[in-house]
Write a structure and sequence with these properties.
mainly alpha, two-stranded antiparallel sheet
Length: 290
């Protein structure tokens, strides 16, 4: 029988972890939905966001400004990669884009090692306060991370459904050729989507940095979990990514409380089960070529 306080702590930990997974993988879903590419380089922007947060917080002592800088640099890095690399391969098949993006990720890890070295770096928690929830001491910062992820989800939904650019992106996710027929420059939509995705990945890294040691390989270390989140939720689905991220976060957190190896095994088991029942994921659409 799990102790009630331990259970509450595990649920909050799982929610915060799921929130990081959501911010980390939402870019993957957006890029696949519109451009039909698997953008593993989003995990590079996640690492860049974490390191920029570390550097800015070390230089001026303000972690929140560091997170903001991580979002900006993550978006700018994504812009550069999109212009130099992806603009040339949008018409290639899915496997080619995935391999290319993985190459960008590996190359980016090398650049991070060159500038910041190999030693893991600590980032202090910006809100070092605890609150009691049903008698259980909970970190306020983890609750803030959950709240930020919820606001990002609402913001993305409003952007896609209430703005002209967002509606064009949403229409492009459904049928990019129809959008082109209306005279809309889809490559501009691709660039906007890529920058947004990179910025959100940078946000994930910046928020995650105080909870872990910032490490050059941190993007590679979460690669398997990122894959699981987008596959379970369904590539291209924003809602599916959110639900899947929370599910995976809870399974890892509660699984480690029940039996430590479950934290690694259970998400893979859930992914295989979902794929057997619904190969496109919980909310995924059929795979179409651009």
């Amino acid at each position: 029988m799990i102790d009630a306080q331990l259970l509450i702590s595990g649920v909050i930990f799982g929610l915060s972890m799921g929130s990081i997974f959501f911010l980390m993988t939402i870019g993957l879903s957006l890029c696949f939905g519109l451009m039909r590419i698997i953008s593993l380089d989003q995990l590079l922007y996640y690492s860049v966001g974490a390191y920029i947060t570390y550097s800015v917080s070390l230089a001026i002592g303000d972690i929140w400004l560091g997170v903001l800088a991580g979002v900006i640099v993550g978006g700018l890095t994504a812009l550069a990669v999109e212009r130099v690399v992806f603009r040339r391969i949008y018409e290639r098949d899915l496997a080619f884009t995935m391999i290319t993006s993985f190459g960008v990720l590996i190359g980016g890890v090398g650049v991070i090692k060159y500038f910041w070295g190999l030693v893991p770096r600590p980032v202090p928690v910006p809100i070092d306060v605890q609150v009691f929830i049903i008698g259980t001491e909970i970190s306020v910062y983890r609750l803030v991370v959950v709240g930020i992820a919820a606001l990002v989800y609402v913001g993305i939904w409003l952007f896609l459904n209430r703005t002209i650019i967002g509606k064009a992106i949403r229409a492009g996710i459904e049928d990019v050729e129809h959008v082109e027929g209306l005279g809309i420059n889809v490559y501009r939509l691709f660039t906007i989507t890529f920058v947004i995705a990179g910025g959100l990945s940078g946000l994930a890294g910046g928020l995650h940095a105080p909870l872990i040691m910032v490490d050059p390989n941190m993007g590679l270390e979460v690669l398997a979990f990122a894959f699981m989140v987008v596959i379970i939720g369904g590539l291209g689905s924003i809602k599916g990514t959110l639900i899947s991220a929370i599910l995976v976060g809870q399974v890892i957190s509660l699984g480690s409380i029940i039996y430590a190896p479950l934290a690694q095994m259970a998400p893979f088991a859930i992914m295989l089960l979902v794929l057997l029942i619904k190969p496109t994921g919980l909310f995924g659409s059929p795979l179409l070529k651009r």
